[in-house]
Write a structure and sequence with these properties.
The complex is a heterotrimer. Chain A is α/β, with parallel strands linked by helices. Chain A is built from nine helices and 16 strands. Chain B has four helices and no strands. The relative contact order of chain B is 0.14. The chains are: A alpha/beta, B mainly alpha, C alpha/beta. Chains A and C meet through α1, β7, β14, α8 and α9 of A and β5 and α14 of C.
Chain lengths: 283, 151, 486
Amino acid sequence: MFEILEKKVWSDEVPKIKEFVVKAPAIAKAHHAGQFIILIVDENGERIPLTIADKDANKGTISILFQEVGKSTMCLGMLNKGDHIHHMAGPLGKPTHVEKFGTVVCVGGGIGIAPVHPIAKAMKDAGNKVISILGARSKDLLIYEDKMKKASHEIRITTDDGSYGRHGFVTDELKHMIEVEKIPIDLVVVIGPPIMMKFVCKVTEPYKLRTFASLNTIMVDGTGMCGACRVTVGGKTKFVCVDGPEFDGHQVDFEEMMMRQRQYLPEEKLARETCEKQTCHKS
Amino acid sequence: MSFKSIKDIIKYAIEKEAEAMNFYTEAGKQEKYSAGKKTFESFANEEKKHKTMLEDLDPKNVAGFNPARIADLKRSDYMVDITYKAGMSYPDILRLAMKREEKAKKFYDDCVGHVDAGGHKKLFQMLSQEEAKHKLALETLYDNLMAKGGD
Amino acid sequence: MSEEKETKAGEKPKKPKIPRQSMPEQDPHKRAGNFDSVTLGYKMEQAALEASRCIQCKKPFCISGCPVSIDIPGFIKLVKEKEYLKAAQHIKKYNLLPAVCGRVCPQEDQCEKVCIVGKKGEPVAIGRLERFVADYEAAHGEVPLPELPPKTGKKVAVVGAGPGGLTVAFDLIMLGHDVTIFEALHKAGGVLVYGIPEFRLPKAIVEREVQYLTRLGVDLKLNHVIGKIRTIDQLMKEDGFDAVFIGSGAGLPWFMDVPGENLNGVYSANEYLTRNNLMKSFDFPKHDTPIKKHKNVAVIGGGNVAMDSVRTALRLGADNAYIVYRRSRAEMPARKEEVDHAEHEGVQFKNLTAPVRVIGNEQGWVTGLECLKMDLGEPDASGRRRPVPVKGSEFIMEMDAVIIAIGTSANPLIAQTTPDLKLNKKGYIEVENETTCRTSKKGVFAGGDIVTGSATVILAMGAGRNAAKSIQQYLQTGEWTPNGKQ
C-alpha cells in the first residue's frame, strides 16, 4: 500500500488533471530520469503505467501526474490525501541517456510536460544548456511551469488558443528556433501525445537533429513479459517496457503505435460509462 | 555482374565469405553480453571454414561436380528481413544468419540461370549447394529451438 | 496373454484387478463456456480404492521419477489407510505445492511413467491422489505448521515467487534461514497465477499455498522488480543478504517475424493469458483490465501454453478456436491430456500448417491468417523428419485474432544490471550444473526458466530443491569452489 501525502488538482475541466505525491521510498531512491511506474488503484484494478514527474529521495516520495481519461484514472483521481494506492511497481524502463550533449531542447506537450521535467533536470545537472518548450491547449491547462523554469535555462510556451505564450503548437516554436533563430541544438527530447511526438520528429528529421521520444503504449505487466507494448523501431519490433520507453524518434513507426493504442477504445468507453453510472467501486 | 573465368568466380565467392566473416566478427565485438558474443564468434568461425574451403578449391575439380539434393526447410523464406542491431536475441541472430544464407544461395542460383558455359554453371551450382548446406544447418538449429518452444 | 496365465499360475491367490480410477470431469460442452475447474477430483472412496492399487514396491521407481523426490508409496499407504490428513502432511515434507503439482505436473512422463503397476496395466494415478490429499487437507481447516529449527542468522533473497522461488524459500525457511522473496508482480505465484488458467488451476489454491509459506515466516515483497528497484549487487552488499536465488522465469515472448504481427488482434500468449488469469479480464468490466471477445481465433503453437490460450479463447466465446501448428500431432510438446481436453471442448486442430502472414484491414485489425501446408520431409542426420512447405499450398483462414504461443526468451532485466553474471548464448543464465545451480557470481544461484528456457512447473521446483541444497552447503561452509576445485 502506498500512501498519498499530497493531492493537487491542476485542472477541473474534464478530463481533469491531478497530481499526487506518494510515499514510495525505495522507488524514489532507485529512480532515474525517464523511468516510469505501474500502479493498481485497488484489487480489481488494471495495471497502468505512469511516468514519474518528480521525486524527493530524502523524503522518500515520488510525484505522479495524470489526466482522468479512463475509468482507472478517474478512480485514481477520487482518492484523497491519506488514502492508499494498492500496488505500485517501479522504477521501470531504461533511464534516459544523460550526458553533456551541449544544447538540449526538452519538448513537453499537455501532461507530457510532467515526465519531461526530471529529464530536463538531469540534462541541466549534466552541464547541458536546457531550453524547454511547453505546449498546452490553453493557459488553464498548462502544468509545471514553475518547475520547468527551475529545471531549464530558458522556457518557451505555446498554447493552441493563444491564451498564453506563442499562439500555435510546440512544433512552430521548435521550427522557429531552428530556422529563424538558428540556435545550434544538439539534442531534442520530446514527450506528449503521439501525434505531437510524430510531428516534432518530422521537424527535426531533415536537420538530422537527434531526437529522443518517450513512448507511452498499452502495457499489462510492464516488466518484459507480455509484449502488449511492442512498437516498430527501425523496422524491428521493440518492447517499450524493457527496451524503452525512450527511442530514437526518427526510427519510430508512430502510425502503427497510434493504431495499436486505439485497440481498447470501446472497452474503455464501456468501463467509463459503467463507472459513471454506478458510483465507482473505489470510493 | 560478369565473371571472366572460374578463378574470378572463386575469388568473388571468397570475398563474400570474408565479408560474412567480418560482419559476424564485428557484430560479436559490439555485443555487450557474453551470450550474443559467443554466437557471433561461432558464426564467424563457420564463415572462416567456408572461406578456407574455397581457397583450397582446385578449379580442375569443378567440371566433375554433381549437384546433390539438399533439403530446404524454408524457415527463413517466409520471414521478414532483419538487420543487425546490438543486443539482438538468440533467435533473432539465427534469423539474421538464415536470411544471409538464403540471399547468398539465391544469388548463386540466379547466376546459374544466367550463364551458359558448362564450367561456370557447375561452379555456381557448387557454390549454391554450399550456401544451401549452411542454410539447412542454421534452419535446423532454429527449427530445433522453435520446436522446443512449441511452434 | 502370457502375463495373465502367469498370474493365474502364481502361488499367491490374486485379488480381482481394480481398474485405475478415472477422475470425474465437467461436461465438455458445458465447461467450454465457463472458467470453472475442468477436472473435479476424486471422492474419498475412489481415492482409497485407487491407493489400494499401489503395490508398495521395496525399491520404488516412482520416487526417482519425481523431480522433488516425494515419498510416493509412503503417502499412498496413508491414503489407503484413510489417514488423509497425515498423508497430506507427509507430502508437505517434500513438496510445498501438492495441490498445484497434483493438477499440472506431467505425471505420465515422470512418476507414473516408471510405476511398476503400469508395466502390466495402467499405472497408479499418483497425481490424482496427490491432488486429492491436498484438497482434502485444505477443506479440513487450517494446516498445522511444522516446527521450525532455531534461526541461523543467515539471510537469503529469492528473486521471483514462481514455482522455483517458492520451493527454494520453503526449503530454506525449514532450515532456519531468513528468507525474503522479491516478486515483480502484485501477486505471488509466477506462472501459476499469470499463465495457467483458472479452469486448470484455481487461483485460490495458489493463494493458499503461498499463504502457508508466509505463515512459516517467509517475507514476501510484492511489486519488487529486481534489476530495477534493487540490483543483485545491492541486495548482497547493502542489504545484507548472504545468498541470492534468481528464479525470475520466462521473459519476452517470441514472435514469428512474419508480416503483420503488430496488427491489432495479434497477441502473445503471455499477454492473452496474463490479461485473463492475473488480471481476470474475463470478468470485465467488474475487473478493470479489458480483453477482446473474438469470434475466430487462431493460436499458433502446440505446447501447453498454446492449449491454455485456445481453451481460454473458447471460454471467452469464440465460435471457432484453432490450433495452428507447423508439425504433426505426435510432436506437440503439450500434455496429451490437455490436447484431448481441448479437442473434446471443440478446439479445431490445423496441424502441419505454418502461418506465413497476418492479414489486416485499413483500421489495422486482423482479418485473416495466411498459411502454408507442410509436409514431413526426409529424415535428417538426427533421424528427424522436419516439416517443409508444400509448394503452392497457400490458403487464407478468416480470423479476427491470432495468439502466438511459440515460446519466450530470457527476461533481460537482471542480466542488464548484473554485468558479472554469465549468460549462455541463448541469453539464459549460465549455471555450473543442475545440481549446484551456481552462477558465475559468488553467492548467486539460479534455476527454472531463466536457466533452461520454457519448461514445466515441476522442473522449476526441482531446480529450486537443488538450489536450496546447494545454498545450504554454501551458507554452512562459505566455500565457492566449483566442484571442489580451483
